[in-house]
Amino acid sequence: MEELNQNEEQIMAIFWSQGELLIRDVLDQMQEPKPPYTTLASTIKNIERKGYLTHRMYGTVNIYKPAVNQEDYSKKSFNRLVTHFFGGSVGNFLSFMVKEKSISDKEVKELQDMIDKMDNPQK
Description:
The chain is mainly alpha-helical.
């Protein structure tokens, strides 16, 4: 599957929170400045071409819905990030997060507790 750009991810976030939608419904959910209807329709068709949306016909209009759930997309995006920027090492990613102060000491402790529980399920 092709990657989504930032604009496409914002549109998918609307679908993930709302479910099945018409293009007009998506446009209503978007923040200003809103794109023209035809631009949004083209973007939604492109997202569908990439495999993230499907549609069904209702009369003469298309009703779109997610073909990929948000959790699966998040996992794929995270794995891609770790692979491309951190040599596939989650340890390198976590080290970066700690160095950049993007992760708190409490979160590090929680992660360590999760790792300990995975290593020793009896805990």
